[in-house]
Design brief:
The complex is a heterodimer of chains A (321) and B (245). Chain A has helices at residues 16-31, 46-54, 73-87, 98-111, 219-228, 236-240, 271-274, 294-297, 306-319; strands at residues 3-7, 9-10, 13-14, 36-41, 59-63, 91-95, 114-119, 130-135, 140-146, 151-155, 170-173, 186-192, 204-208, 231-234, 261-265, 282-287, 300-303. With 321 residues, chain A is an alpha/beta fold. In chain A, the strands form four sheets. Chain A has a seven-stranded parallel beta sheet with strand order 7-10-6-1-4-5-11, with helices on both faces. Chain A has a five-stranded parallel beta sheet with strand order 14-13-15-16-17. A two-stranded antiparallel sheet of chain A has the order 2-3. In chain A, helix 3 (73-87) packs across helix 4 and helix 5 runs parallel beside helix 9. With 245 residues, chain B is of the alpha/beta class. Chain B has helices spanning 37-53, 68-77, 92-106, 125-133, 186-192, 233-240, and strands at 2-6, 9-11, 19-20, 25-26, 33-35, 56-63, 81-86, 110-114, 137-147, 150-157, 160-167, 170-174, 197-200, 209-215, 224-226. The chains are: A alpha/beta (321), B alpha/beta (245). At the A-B interface, helix 3, helix 4, strand 7, strand 8 and strand 9 of A face helix 3, helix 4, strand 9, strand 10 and strand 11 of B. The complex binds flavin-adenine dinucleotide (2 copies). One flavin-adenine dinucleotide (FAD) is lined by residues 6-8, 36, 38-39, 60-63, 88-92, 95, 113-114, 116-117, 119-126, 173, 209-211 of chain B.
């Protein structure tokens, strides 16, 4: 009956959004009078996995078959389904991401489970099992009654404030059999920017638009990002023009982000861009046009030239340390 | 090669979202509808693949008659025929089960979808359909070529790309830059009128999630403007007032 939580690993560490999922799952487990079990797939030391205990997990199942070294959603789904069966879980929590959505979907189809992705709050159990989820790319919410016997929830970043406690979790190795059919695709190559902060995990994002004038002018933005320990993003035209790599493209048709602080530099604030950033806690817009729509969506605004303002902000950040 | 492209009929990305009927229905007044932008990329790539190596493209929508203009547009862009499963799409599982039922009958080599719908943003229908049909599914796919019976494609992963090869059939959730959106030309629009659009009734599936009510985010407070010549005070405000630094 244990609530099962899947955590994503990045180079052997549990991602921050996944620790939120653990805290969410542990909170749900408490309301159900049951325990919280975590499933981790891939390489990680036991000291890192034990961290899940500090966020409320009682047990960690660790699947570390060499065949699982690539993020293969089909094989991961088979592992998750096996864990659900072993634990008799009725509630399954995933941190919303491309990988988790793909795994969750395949597991839902295997088990005939309900799947609701994009959940923003703890469930309301006063009348059935209701969850609030983000829809229309952050422009609205829907409250949905989840009816399946097994319920799979993909939770959005900041759905819960995750606090580290002093709990501990036992770690068990988990090696279910893996169906051959999950491995028909061959990975030919991976191109991955190394050492880059991930946009979906970042607490601070500095993002540039066409107002940055060209790829050769990005340095002031990169400098501010570095001073703040921020990840960098961009608008769609910027990635379309190849000024910045595609995986930095934020918005309706790109990555949706939810940092504590989003700083938009020379981005007009088109509704399709805002759709990707409207879950940010605090938004700063820097734009030379006082009529730029971004100011309507921002908490703080500076009407000015990015090439004047950015270096001064970088200096101020460095001096304030 | 037989390609099935699944399209959603969704409010335009610039639409203002509001609700009526005690927050249980979308207020459709003044809302323009469009083919989901990701689905539109999938369709565009399907048309290019067909131009290169022949075959046929069927578009599929699970929806009511108000989807027909979008279906006709997809036909004008280059699909050969269309199927609409006549129902109000309920939840992701229900929708996927309808798509899987159509796909089983059609024996498609390639099922292309968008990476996510832009109304409910779940990003799960491709995985559900793949599992229901017992075939692999991948998303988000940003590059796709077909050679014989093999798909060669690239998938976006965090911070980069992964290049893969897999035998058909497959279900793929697409995003840019897999292709450029296509605008229907006059000839396309004329021929679309006579291309077949088959309306079928839904199969029986349990609804596993049902909507109780919609709501809107709390309105944003006013933006605090900082004069450019005092830009540095922003950093202080972010520390002491907003407490995000
Ligand atoms: C279906 C659809 C989906 C889309 N999806 C996305 C998406 O996911 N993400 C996205 O970003 N867009 C998306 N768009 C595009 C979107 O509509 C806008 O065109 C785009 O966001 C504009 O990018 P921008 O703000 O960088 O450029 P612009 O609109 O050209 O704005 C540049 C801004 O920079 C300012 N500026 C110029 N010089 C300076 C300077 N020296 N200092 C300070 N400010 C300066 C200007 O005042 C202006 O406001 C989508 C569009 C459609 C139709
Ligand atoms: C009037 C209305 C009422 C709704 N009521 C509910 C409700 O009560 N409960 C609930 O949970 N959801 C409800 N929904 C949401 C909706 O039915 C499904 O969630 C939706 O069809 C699938 O969206 P998704 O976000 O799961 O798709 P995703 O998984 O994000 O979609 C991925 C891809 O699958 C394909 N696809 C998705 N949907 C369709 C479709 N309908 N036809 C063809 N291809 C498709 C597209 O290629 C899409 O890009 C409602 C929607 C509408 C319009």
């Amino acid at each position: 009956m244990s609530v099962l939580i899947f955590v994503e690993l990045d180079n052997g560490s549990i991602k921050k959004t996944s620790l939120e999922a653990v805290a969410y799952g542990a909170a749900v487990a408490q309301t159900q009078g049951t325990s919280a079990t975590v499933l981790a797939i891939g390489n990680a030391d036991s000291s890192e996995l034990a961290k899940a205990g500090a966020y409320g997990a009682n047990k960690v199942l660790h699947a570390n078959d060499a065949a699982l070294s690539n993020e293969n959603a089909m094989a991961y789904a088979s592992v998750l389904a096996a864990a659900i069966q072993q634990e008799g879980s009725k509630i399954v929590i995933l941190p919303k991401s491309g990988l988790s959505d793909a795994m969750g979907a395949r597991v839902a189809a295997k088990l005939g489970a309900s799947i609701v992705s994009g959940v923003t709050e703890l469930p309301d159990l006063s009348n059935g099992f209701q969850v609030k989820r983000s829809i229309y790319t952050g422009k609205a919410f829907a409250t949905v009654e989840v009816k399946g016997d097994i319920k799979i929830l993909g939770i959005k970043k900041n759905a819960i404030e995750a606090q580290e406690g002093s709990g501990t979790a036992t770690i068990e190795s988990f090696s279910p059999s893996l169906p051959e059919g999950d491995f028909t695709a061959k990975v030919i190559n991976q191109e991955k920017a190394s050492g880059e902060l991930s946009l979906t995990e970042a607490d601070i994002i500095v993002s540039g638009g066409r107002g940055m004038k060209g790829p050769e002018h990005w340095q002031p933005l990169l400098d501010l990002a570095e001073a703040l320990g921020a990840a960098t993003g961009c608008s769609k035209p910027v990635s379309d023009l190849d000024w910045r790599p595609h995986h930095e493209h934020i918005g309706q048709t790109g990555i949706k982000v939810a940092p504590n602080l989003y700083i938009a530099c020379g981005i007009s604030g088109a509704i399709q861009h805002l759709a990707g950033v409207n879950s940010s806690k605090v938004i700063v817009a820097i734009n030379k046009d006082p009529e730029a729509p971004f100011f309507k969506a921002a908490d703080y605004g500076i009407v000015g030239d990015v090439f004047d303002v950015l270096p001064r902000l970088t200096k101020a950040v460095k001096e304030s340390k | 090669m037989k390609i099935l492209v699944c399209i959603t009929n969704v409010p335009d990305t610039s639409a203002k979202i509001s609700f009526t009927d005690n927050n249980t229905k979308l207020n459709k007044a003044g809302v323009q509808y469009m083919i989901g932008p990701y689905d539109d990329y999938a369709l565009a790539r399907a048309v290019e693949l067909k131009e290169k190596s022949g075959g046929s493209i069927t578009v599929l929508n699970v929806g009511e008659a108000d989807s027909d203009p979008q279906i006709r547009k997809a036909l004008a862009i280059g699909a050969d025929d269309a199927i609409r499963v006549n129902c109000d799409p309920q939840d992701s599982y229900f929708t996927a089960a309808q798509i899987a039922a159509v796909a089983k009958d059609g024996n498609y080599d390639l099922i292309l979808m968008g990476r996510e719908s832009i109304d409910f943003n779940s990003g799960v229908v491709h995985g559900l359909v793949g599992e229901m049909l017992g075939i692999p599914s991948f998303s988000p796919v940003m590059k796709l070529d077909i050679e014989g019976n093999t798909a060669k494609f690239a998938r976006e992963i965090e911070g980069g790309k992964e290049y893969l090869e897999a035998p058909l059939p497959l279900v793929l959730g697409c995003q840019e830059p897999i292709a450029e959106w296509k605008i229907p030309n006059m000839r396309g629009i004329m021929t679309a009128r006579t291309k077949p659009l088959k309306v079928v009734e839904p199969v029986d599936v349990n609804n596993l999630a049902s909507l109780t009510a919609y709501s809107l985010p709390a309105p944003k407070g006013a933006c605090k403007m900082i004069p450019a010549d005092q830009a540095e005070t922003l950093i202080t405000l972010l520390k002491t007032e907003a407490k995000v630094l």
